[in-house]
Write a sequence for this structure.
């Protein structure tokens, strides 16, 4: 694995490295960790990389690695830069024959997104988008329960993602994470909706197997002088007639990272909360609610394949994130070996999920900007 | 107290009787428990009432009681009939000089509502509406914390009220509660939004001290052949600029009575859930969340005045309901004694809350019926 | 109902009155609320009693009421005094033909206990002890599940009752509740173990249907100068070979009233916590844990008969307490009518539970006082 | 790192590998993964090791690696075999100059334990014991809060460790984990108390800073034919006069891995549960309970140094386990660099913790075997 971005002080770069390392299937062999060459080398040292594989730019990295013999060169590129810097390295990596793991949202705008999709299709390379919340075992279980009609046809979905960390104008205090996320030049046209709303959208569609067909959004900026939405709520209509609500907020003071989804069908409901991820509440009409738990009882193979340790030994965010990397690794290994990967592992967010997310951002901003039009199709 | 409705088999009538009895301040002295005179008498026997005070109709009750000497006749009328039968007895009681405790929503439509308001104002009588959820100690605490600016200006309110009991077409099975609630002739123009959405609206405005200024609603009927909404979501804008979401659903399979509210201000957030009512979560920017509990530590007098027993001895729905009756009793006693009631007790939902609820129903239905207009002012 | 004790400022007296009033089956008709005659009358006024039925002592009350005609005199006596004052009125009430509801523990020592048992047996009168925690619907459910072998033979019981309110020397601050409970002359030979340990013992035996056969106790006084145990732990052996732990503590700072029991059988386990009493966790070997809830799904008739309102409308401490009074009322009514009471209602703690509790106190103190003998039979 | 044990199908070996890999500071370079040489090589292939560093035995591994040049040979040995096979490789590793990370309990009996302690002291090498539960950030926070007297002098400790997985005679079904853990020849003289009771003991002493001074144990075997305790409870006395209870059970049907500790001081109490490890409840006398959370607010540096990602992104068992490895790596790196390691990192369970655990096992078994002697000093 070669990494673009994620030098010292970056949050998500470290997450990607730990996630990639956890299962002993992926080795970080090179990186362009910073646009500052000296800092790239410094960062590489932290990871015990030789200096000559700490590149001054993603371009140099991809060019140089391309020329290394197979088996020696990196197998894929991990892109962990701010949103506006996803597209250039992703494009170049694909064009140079490297698989890609890319942080979400896919890129800066829909034009880039479609270009990436074309490239993935034309090259046939693996492209994974780290909508990491789909990596949790209990999310897999929820998806399979709905797919197998355990709760009946879905009628209602409520997905919420409140955070509180942007309750003050953090971007004015040179907080790096806040700075780029609230900057339309680096983040794109949406703020909270792009950063975390897309996770909520992705999770709702992933678990339910449905598609959002129309939205009605109210976006707001609560902090004076902020440039992108920090809070928003959306009425949802799904392609099967189900209704729902999605909201994403970064000014919900006192909330940490409280992604939560509830899906109700004709016979029962499911509830999953990211902050207690090893529990899936399964609610029934006139029967006791069940607490499905990672590792307990008969779960779907899709759930069990994404857990590592026995029940009651909590697995968390990094393990879910690692599931994406592990699955990518399995797919790459299978390709190298000319084999089919087992179906349970051939499951990670793709460029299509990325396209869907960019579309969601477009439509949410369109709807949020209108005080007149009620429903925007999606 | 004389009761209209609430004979054998009624749900809310029994709740009112228990709530009224709990504190030993109110005695049930008569009733018109059923429109069937024989059944009214039978029901009255269950409550150890003499036959001659079990009336065949509210009219006879109010007339007859009016002629009894003071001190012997009922002091107030409790109305626990389906919505379409709130207005007639309420009107007559007020016109006959009796205070009124009325179940919610206030009445059938806005015209009736305004007439009741006029009567309450012209007679100066006490009129209480049993939006019982405002009776919980931790709801009082939340309201006082916001009033005293403990969490800063409110930015976001999420209030949700999912139930699952109408997930099937219960009204077709002669279930009495389902039958009238889904019947527009008895329930009014809204279903779930009238039955429980008004509780959510009332709670949000009561705790926050704000008013909803505009709404954008999506109402839906999920059960074929049902006549009123059984599920709906609303985007909210408040008069101070706060944003939010309200939803009420009776097809959220597996949910019991899961009213929950979260209010976020500049400095922190509050979370209260009716099903675990003795806890108020108080969340802070960068400080540990606190679990305020009924009876623990320094709470506002308004909270303490509505709890009866020491911390850790859970008080529930009936106790909160009883707080409304107890406060009404205190107010009536104070009037009889020519005294002022203590301020902490002069707090129960009024005819104005009822007007507000009826207005909410009107506007929600108006918004829900439109696929074009986005925002309806309220 | 006539009440002994429970005048202004008393905690448990008010609880008994609310519990008795809730269901409209019991009327407070007289009382000896205080050993101070003037205060007894004052207290009686609070409850709207005529002065001539506010007696200066329990003796006068029982004598005077005995002479009233049937139908006019009280039907039973409720005793809510400190422990050392349970026996005299209970004895006299029984000897005078009155049924008795008595607060727990039964009395001051075993001698009194045995005398009461003899009297209950010889008179055939109803005697109820308010081990109120057995009144919760989910406690009934747990008991029935074990009785019907749903979790298999019981192997392990953990029952704990931590409180924190005696973490400081409250009895030195003239706090009435603390003063008598820490005074061996009024409380008896045990402190925390008598006050709340007996509840834990009673609950464990009630739910499990087992009897504790041997104990090994460590009692301690953490507050200098306190005269009775404020903290203690006990190893338990049950008559079927099950093992377990019981502890009761009033110096567990920050705990409210955290009675909790877990019972494990061959096939599963049950967990119930008094502070969230409408939930019963049912855990299974290799199957998801179930959350049984008051009012949800198919519960035993014994559970349903002790709930009043639909699922999700929390019932609490007073409702559970009221279940004892309601059952007593049903039993008295049945006797008066010469009928059998329905079996589900013929269930409240009896004088035998009281004897068992006094025996428990004796044995715990015996074991706690010994640093040598390991096991004390019980 | 070279590993002893932990071949295909082993549970704890995989945990150690993931924990070691997570932070990119430790590389698995060799192993003796199985006593079967072919299987050792096969296992090594899974980890991408060259065949010549997959050794047929720990002896060959240590001998061979000793002869490799510094920088090339392993830096330390990780021992993940069943208990009876801890001592031989640990001894040889230490004698050969290798640091050691060893699974718990330390070894088979006290004699071995003391020998290891002598070797650690004489060689000055680093020896870490994976009492992994001490690696959680909130455990560090709890320890520091008590050390800084935030809750006052400790009065009561309740530590419990229920599991249910040995509720049936799993060892008869050739379940590898069950087989050795219930076999006195491989596990030692204690069953549940050795396997998980030692974790509970270690955690209680680690957080409280106290030592258990006397115990009174009741051990039991619930499954016919099982050879070691599967359930036990212990009364505890601590060296400062605090009292408490410890229990460990593997027949608590339906429990996963429910290690939980509550510590009460004069001013407040702490509660931490392993299955929800990012929350530390801090309870106060007459103030609201606080939920301390990993990453939220001002925590002790010792807590923050053991968390990797922002609040609300749950870290779990593997991350806590990895903290021990990361700290060992930091200590080894510091030694190699001739520097002092930062104090917050110089914290992992040592051979002394191991000695303490072996002593605990000895004394618990002694006490558990006696029906006469009440207190056994420890």
């Amino acid at each position: 694995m070669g990494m673009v971005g994620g030098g010292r002080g970056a949050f998500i770069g470290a997450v990607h490295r730990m996630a990639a390392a956890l299962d002993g299937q992926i080795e970080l062999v090179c990186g362009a960790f910073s646009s500052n060459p000296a800092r790239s080398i410094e960062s590489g040292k932290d990871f015990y990389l030789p200096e000559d594989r700490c590149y001054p730019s993603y371009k140099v990295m991809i060019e140089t690695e391309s020329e290394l013999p197979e088996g020696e060169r990196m197998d894929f590129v991990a892109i962990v830069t701010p949103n506006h810097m996803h597209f250039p390295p992703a494009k170049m990596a694909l064009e140079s024959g490297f698989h890609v793991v890319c942080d979400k949202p896919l890129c800066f705008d829909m034009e880039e997104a479609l270009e990436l999709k074309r490239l993935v299709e034309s090259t046939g390379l693996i492209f994974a988008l780290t909508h990491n919340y789909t990596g949790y075992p209990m999310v897999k279980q929820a998806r399979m329960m709905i797919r197998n009609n355990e709760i009946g046809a879905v009628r209602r979905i409520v997905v919420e993602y409140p955070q509180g960390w942007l309750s003050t104008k953090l971007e004015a205090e040179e907080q790096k994470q806040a700075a780029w996320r609230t900057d339309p030049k680096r983040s794109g046209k949406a703020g909270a909706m792009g950063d975390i709303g897309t996770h909520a959208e992705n999770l709702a569609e992933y678990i339910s197997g449905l598609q959002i067909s129309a939205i009605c959004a109210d976006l707001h900026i609560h902090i004076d002088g902020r440039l992108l939405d920090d809070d928003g709520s959306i009425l949802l209509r799904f392609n099967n007639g189900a209704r729902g609500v999605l909201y994403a907020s970064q000014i919900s003071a006192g909330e940490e990272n409280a992604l939560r989804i509830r899906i109700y069908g004709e016979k029962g409901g499911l509830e999953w909360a990211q902050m207690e991820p090893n529990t899936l509440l399964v609610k029934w009409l006139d029967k006791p609610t069940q607490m499905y738990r990672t590792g307990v009882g008969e779960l779907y193979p899709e759930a069990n394949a994404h857990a590592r340790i026995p029940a009651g030994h909590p697995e968390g965010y990094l393990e879910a994130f690692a599931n994406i990397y592990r699955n990518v690794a399995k797919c790459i290994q299978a390709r190298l070996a000319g084999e089919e990967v087992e179906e349970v592992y051939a499951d990670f967010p793709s460029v299509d999920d990325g396209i869907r997310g960019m579309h969601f951002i477009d439509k949410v901003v369109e709807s949020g900007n209108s005080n007149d039009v009620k429903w925007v199709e999606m």
